[in-house]
Amino acid sequence: MRKLFLIPSTGKAPLNFVAMTSMTFGQKKFIPTAPEKGSFPLDHEGQCKKLMLYYMRCLRTNNDDNSACRQECRAYLQCRMDHNLMAKEEFSKLGVATIKLPVLVEKLRATIPNVAIKVIVTGHADHFFSPADIPPDVPVLRDQDEWDSWRTRGDPVLHIELGKWADLFVVAPLDANSLAKMAGGLCDNLLLCTARAWDFGKPFFFAPAMNTRMWDHPVTGQHVQVLRSWGLREIPCVAKTLDVRGHGARGDGRGGHDRGQGGGVFGGDGV
Fold it and tell me: Where is this region: Disordered (predicted)?
């Protein structure tokens, strides 16, 4: 049996603004038209402000755990679509890339018969999905598992054992932070330690996912090229409307991979 790894991987800044007002008599009321897909203009009329505040309050209450606030997020986005403040889009195509983790697991199992999957999540990725959505026979591994499995000299080291166990490594999504760390050889969590100790004689796929501004930064292309130069296989980005925050580039999970029986590690970051 081949084995596969599946790995999915805020700050608050002061808001400076200038308030201005003007009155124009005899002017027709402005009716907005839906912007191009991916655009996320300001809600100048405050039509969805109340729902936005409900969503932000939910995030604060739940320590920025987006999985606990999906209904509030959905209501806010629906309001924006109803008022032509964003292009209409199916909810299944919106969101943070890590929310797709259960779907990725499902698709891999449907595509590769008898595949065995282990999932590694970073601390941030853990906020964006519910463990209950992952099949019970798919282990979800976190940084703490590295230390819980090692007690004394001679005990197995988890990130080494995972690299031995898996036949295929998929990092989806790979955010800008972990991409930069991987390109620089840093390994400060279970995901990156497993990647650093990977046998490059076996397939390694990565699916970059980040906001468009981060994707367009010159250093991003350099980091992606470093990973390619090592023989890692990139799953190209597609443009998506991001969950509340705007437009972004996201790995679409449709990249090629070896077909057949097997297993692997699937890892990822919160984006």
Answer: 247-271
